[in-house]
Amino acid sequence: MASPLKPILLHSHPGPNPWKIALLLSELDVPYSTHVYSTQELKTQEFLAINPTGMAPVIEDPNTGIVLAESSAIADYILTQYDTAHSLSFADLEPHFQMRQWLAYQVTTQGPWLQQIFRWSILHSNPEAKAAYVADFRRVLQVLDDHLEGRQWLVGDKCSAADLSFVSFHSRLGFIMREDVPDVEKEFPSVDAWYKRMLEREAVKKVMREHDESLKKFVPPPKKE
Fold first, then answer.
1. pTM summary value
2. pLDDT along the chain (225 residues), means of 10
3. Of 177, 189, 145, which is closest to residue 16 (Cα–Cα)?
4. DSSP assignments along the chain, one per residue
């Protein structure tokens, strides 16, 4: 009988990116624990000893001894090591690389554009830069909406790692975009229907609760007037 898996340690922060990894682990029922860091804590010598870039996510897998950073590399590792049954991936060539295509698209568009919107609207006010990234991000939503029209999922006939990769950032649109957040239900109805399907998944519900709890530690509640 195989030994039970030891929990993977996921080094995280309150932003959306590390929670993509939590979604994969949760969907695959791989045990994990999460250590959530503040931005300042990511730059301490303790964390830099784990990842010299000072960025999360990072995983430490006691089952293999691997320590790995960068969300795309971590996702590849999890799917290779823990999805041998292809419940979130594909054995056949074409859907496998279609999934990889959408994973790459998320890493190069949705995530970065929303991070830039946050930067230029909240961290360093620059309305012109913000407006440019809002326009870029709306094109991302349009690409997704066009592709999802008449489809349940991004690839094939099942929820895959491609779908999961877009969830954590999409869940924070209101917080990140503020007054520029689109009416997704009206403007991008296929994306809206897809996202509502994602929210029905038990693993997604679980991770969204965990993410919400992590935010309470670092984001103060609004002041009462």
1. 0.93
2. 83 96 98 95 96 97 98 98 98 98 97 94 89 96 98 98 98 94 97 98 97 79 49
3. 177
4. -PPPPPPEEEEE-SSSTTHHHHHHHHHTT--EEEEE--TTGGGSHHHHTT-TT--S-EEEETTTTEEEESHHHHHHHHHHHH-TT-SSS-SSHHHHHHHHHHHHHIIIIIHHHHHHHHIIIIIS--HHHHHHHHHHHHHHHHHHHHHHTT-SSSSTTS--HHHHHHHHHHTTHHHHHGGG---HHHH-HHHHHHHHHHHTSHHHHHHHHHHHHHHHHHSPPPPP-
